[in-house]
């Protein structure tokens, strides 16, 4: 909606705020300005001033003005903000983003993938910002509907150098949607308090707007009563002027409602009815109002003339939100319900119809409850679980008491939608109440099972599931479901034998009941527990589980998906390509159904991408997982993401971030009993300490991990080579050999052949430390050969580093320099600066000819050559599995060394430069 520029009198007394706005709009990168103040203080006027200023500068303006009545309508604000802009850029967006955007905006009928939608919103902002700066103006941001807030927040957080700024207002005492608050903080928010106006400014506004010149005592009374609030002051002055007794006494109303009622009293009766319709709708389009109010133009004309309503871009709205609140709050309950009942029959959007129907209905009504239940399911499919939870809660409220099964089912649906939307606190409250009201039944067991996914104490969850088994005793399918979840919890707790036992029983009960889905989950849970206990991966169980899952379509939730578990086992088996293919497939499904469990899927993907050498993809996966975990509200999900982030940060050399993430994950999960997450955090912390050259600290973390779980657990098997290296650096060669023997036996037993490169590397380290140069050289060369050009560049680089160390000690200077320089280049390419520095330090210890400081390093040459051939920095980063920042830094060094300033000069210089690698 286009905002009209504010009049000069509307900005009286706002010189300081206007100067702050002008200064803010001089920025050229993403940022946010948040205007904060009480209702009526002038925030809307200042937002309009910012829009006018940006328009004069030639900026692209995107606006939305959410209303309280629209806060539960999914994507209402997004449609206002991006509606027209989408048409300009939609052809350039990928197909999934086009579909999601058009589905959210109700242009087409389509299921809305929330990630595709959010990515599409980001694509729109970036496309518009290519041509000119963009301002996104959000007045009364506290009323943004949650789906719009989440999509916009996702896009804003990913802005980097794009000239996109946000100017928003927030009413004092009201909170912004959490996702938007976090996004504004991430891009850098400046808060601008909007203070009360001075006595003189209030007097000038009253004279300009109302033509009143009040004597000073009256003006002082109005200023004191309004506390410098211009909206209140104008209303007070207008009311006082019309009520003057001619002797100078000006009665001052005490409340906004009284002010509004005085304004309304002067309007015809049908105009007052039309105002209530507008208040119930928010900012209706004129065609919607035409269906709701007969002869609407005549009806609302007096309110338009009185400045109570205004028309903007084909929509009708109140001149100020306080007027809407006064109209709606001042109406009798039966009047509001009558308006909502009428609107439920005329508004075009099905979810909006359901929302009005819910507010029109006071007494239990099964037909209405059924309608709302269906609308909730539709909202969930459209990627708006927040709206689905609201509608489902209304459905539960309106379900007759004589339908207890439906009431229980709808309460459970509400809790499920709330959980999917990330509101675990609300979901837990509903479930606890539901469990307390039900007797032994499958419904109570289902409530306990969902509660288990929220509760963050393993012992408590196991007790809950024990009670759930009692609730469903004799029901084979329901028992299988409970036992499968019990197997999952025992796996989290590190009780793998117990998990195997529960999964085997679940499989038997599922087979007896004919439940294909529960049988698939049971087989996968058993396979996972066996791998965690140190057994060889039971591929036959996993293959059967995945086949059964495919037979059942998408009936199995992402968290229980056998395909997800198979991807995890493939990662542990070092089959990274299979792991990546399966995990990305599960991630796509998690996005499509908007499951919060996607956060856990992304932790797996982050480790896969890290081992494949794609630091950028690993970091992006962790960032998205962190966002999901943040609004999910499940502590063990947050801890799992922290553990994954610690491993990524440790590799990327972000030492303090990695240490804090690992320490917090372990601190959260140790008392809760989530042993698997603690192990992941310890593994990351041990790797970090080794990376920074603290072998004693590394061993101090890894020794208890290995002692507690044995070498068989995947986290322990991954950490064992690091502990061997730490023990060697500490001079504890016998202990290192013992641990290496255990690791070797484990690898032979499980058939994880790619781990043999790490074993050979460790063997070389031990032999070199003991002075056995022949064995060290053979083992180091074996490690490099086993890596080859395989899919794990970090392991390959570490093998090259050890080979270089062994050759240096053998006085093979040229060969040592070759291996160490190759190791350093690979470490730099994958974005592992701590290890790259270790390689540089080893190079410094190699005698003989050193490379000139003006020579390009191998990694600099590779990057420069690709750029000279016409690749963009982003394309080079993708090809070499490094970040764009790494490419930029290497290119800067190459420009300096070669004495060039442009890509064209770079191409010419490389064409004549000697082959410095030869």
In short:
The chain is mainly α. The strands form 2 sheets. A 5-stranded parallel sheet has the order 2-3-4-1-5, sandwiched between helices. A two-stranded antiparallel ribbon has the order 6-7.
List the helices and strands and how they pair.
Layout: H1 15-24, E1 31-37, H2 43-56, E2 60-64, H3 76-89, H4 95-104, H5 114-129, E3 134-138, H6 146-157, E4 164-171, H7 178-187, E5 189-193, H8 199-210, H9 216-226, H10 230-242, H11 256-265, H12 269-281, H13 286-292, H14 296-305, E6 309-312, E7 315-318, H15 321-330, H16 333-346, H17 350-360, H18 366-381, H19 385-397, H20 404-420, H21 424-437, H22 442-452, H23 458-471, H24 476-493, H25 496-513, H26 516-532, H27 539-551, H28 562-572, H29 576-592, H30 598-612, H31 615-632, H32 635-652, H33 655-669, H34 675-691, H35 695-709, H36 714-729, H37 733-750, H38 756-769, H39 773-787, H40 793-809, H41 813-830, H42 833-845, H43 858-868, H44 873-880, H45 884-898, H46 903-912
Parallel strand pairs: 1-4, 1-5, 2-3, 3-4
Antiparallel strand pairs: 6-7
- Strand pairing plus helix content: what structural class? mainly alpha
- Can you summarize the main beta sheet? 5 strands, parallel
Number of DSSP strands? 7
Total number of helical segments?
A: 46
Report strand order across the widest sheet: 2-3-4-1-5
Oligomeric state as shown = single chain
């Amino acid at each position: 909606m286009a905002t009209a520029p504010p009049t000069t009198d509307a900005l009286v007394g706002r010189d300081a705020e206007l100067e702050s706005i002008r200064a803010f709009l001089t920025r050229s990168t993403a940022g946010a300005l948040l205007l904060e103040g009480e209702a009526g203080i002038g925030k809307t006027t200042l937002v309009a001033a910012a829009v006018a200023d940006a328009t004069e500068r030639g900026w692209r303006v995107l606006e939305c003005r959410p209303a309280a009545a629209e806060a539960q309508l999914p994507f209402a604000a997004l449609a206002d903000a991006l509606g027209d802009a989408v048409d300009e850029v939609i052809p350039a967006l990928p197909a999934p983003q086009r579909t999601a955007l058009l589905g959210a905006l109700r242009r087409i009928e389509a299921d809305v993938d929330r990630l595709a939608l959010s990515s599409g919103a980001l694509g729109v902002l970036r496309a518009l910002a290519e041509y000119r700066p963009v301002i996104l103006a959000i007045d009364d941001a506290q009323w943004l509907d949650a789906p719009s807030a989440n999509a916009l927040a996702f896009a804003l957080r990913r802005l980097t150098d794009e000239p996109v700024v946000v100017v928003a207002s927030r009413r004092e005492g009201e909170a912004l949607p959490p996702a938007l608050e976090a996004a504004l903080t991430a891009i850098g928010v400046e808060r601008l308090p909007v203070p009360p106006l001075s006595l003189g400014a209030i007097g000038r506004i009253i004279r300009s707007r109302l033509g009143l010149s009040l004597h000073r005592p009256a003006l002082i009374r109005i200023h004191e009563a309004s506390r410098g609030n211009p909206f209140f002051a104008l209303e007070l002055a207008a009311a006082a002027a019309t009520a003057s007794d001619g002797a100078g006494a000006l009665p001052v109303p005490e409340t906004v409602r009284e002010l509004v009622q005085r304004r309304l009293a002067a309007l015809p009766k049908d105009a007052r009815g039309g105002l209530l319709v507008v208040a119930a709708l928010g900012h209706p389009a004129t065609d919607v109002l035409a269906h709701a109010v007969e002869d609407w133009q005549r009806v609302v004309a007096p309110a338009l003339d009185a400045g109570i309503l205004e028309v903007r871009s084909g929509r009708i709205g109140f001149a100020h939100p306080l007027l809407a609140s006064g109209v709606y709050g001042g109406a009798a309950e039966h009047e509001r319900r009558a308006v909502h009942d009428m609107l439920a029959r005329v508004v075009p959007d099905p979810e909006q119809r359901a929302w009005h129907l819910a507010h029109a209905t006071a007494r239990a009504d099964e037909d209405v409850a059924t309608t709302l239940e269906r609308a909730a399911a539709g909202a969930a499919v459209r990627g708006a679980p927040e709206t689905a939870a609201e509608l489902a809660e209304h459905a539960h409220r309106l379900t007759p008491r004589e339908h207890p099964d439906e009431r229980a089912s709808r309460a459970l649906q509400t809790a499920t939608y709330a959980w999917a939307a990330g509101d675990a606190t609300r979901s837990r409250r509903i479930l606890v109440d539901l469990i307390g009201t039900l007797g032994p039944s499958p419904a109570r067991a289902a409530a306990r099972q969902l509660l288990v996914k929220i509760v963050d104490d393993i012992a408590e969850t196991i007790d809950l599931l024990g009670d759930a088994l009692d609730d469903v005793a004799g029901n084979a399918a329901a028992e299988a479901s409970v036992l499968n979840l019990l197997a999952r919890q025992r796996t989290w707790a590190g009780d793998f034998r117990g998990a195997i036992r529960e999964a085997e029983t679940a499989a038997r009960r599922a087979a007896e009941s004919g439940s294909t889905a529960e049988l698939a989950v049971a087989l996968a849970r058993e396979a996972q527990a066996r791998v965690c206990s140190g057994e060889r991966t039971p591929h036959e169980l996993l293959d059967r589980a995945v086949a059964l899952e495919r037979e059942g379509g998408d009936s199995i939730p992402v968290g229980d998906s056998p395909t997800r578990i198979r991807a995890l086992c493939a990662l542990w088996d070092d089959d990274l390509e299979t792991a990546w293919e399966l995990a990305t497939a599960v991630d796509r499904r998690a996005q499509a159904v908007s499951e919060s469990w996607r956060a856990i899927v992304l932790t797996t993907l982050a480790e896969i991408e890290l081992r494949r050498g794609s630091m950028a993809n690993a970091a992006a996966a962790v960032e998205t997982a962190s966002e999901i975990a943040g609004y999910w509200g499940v502590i063990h999900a947050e801890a799992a993401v922290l553990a994954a982030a610690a491993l990524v940060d440790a590799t990327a050399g972000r030492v303090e971030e990695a240490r804090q993430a690992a320490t917090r994950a372990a601190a959260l999960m140790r008392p809760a009993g989530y042993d698997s997450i603690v192990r992941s955090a310890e593994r990351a912390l041990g790797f970090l300490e080794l990376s920074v050259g603290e072998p004693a600290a590394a061993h101090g973390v890894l020794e208890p991990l290995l002692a507690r779980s044995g070498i068989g657990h995947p986290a322990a098997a991954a950490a064992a080579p690091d502990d061997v290296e730490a023990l060697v650096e500490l001079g504890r060669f016998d202990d290192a050999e013992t641990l290496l023997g255990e690791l070797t036996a484990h690898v032979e037993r499980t058939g994880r052949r790619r781990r043999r490169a790490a074993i050979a590397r460790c063997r070389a380290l031990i032999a070199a430390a003991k002075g056995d140069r022949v064995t060290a050289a053979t083992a180091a060369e074996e490690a490099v050969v086993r890596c080859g050009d395989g899919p794990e560049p970090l392991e390959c680089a570490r093998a090259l580093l050890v080979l270089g160390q062994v050759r240096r000690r053998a006085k093979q200077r040229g060969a040592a320099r070759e291996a160490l320089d190759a190791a350093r280049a690979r470490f730099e390419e994958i974005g592992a600066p701590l290890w790259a520095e270790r390689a540089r330090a080893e190079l410094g210890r190699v005698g003989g000819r050193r490379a000139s400081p003006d020579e390009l390093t191998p990694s600099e040459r590779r990057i420069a050559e690709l750029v000279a051939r016409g690749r963009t920095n982003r394309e080079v980063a993708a090809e070499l599995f490094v970040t764009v920042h790494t490419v930029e830094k290497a290119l800067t060094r190459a420009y300096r060394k070669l004495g060039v300033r442009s890509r064209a000069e770079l191409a010419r210089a490389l064409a004549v430069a000697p082959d410095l690698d030869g």
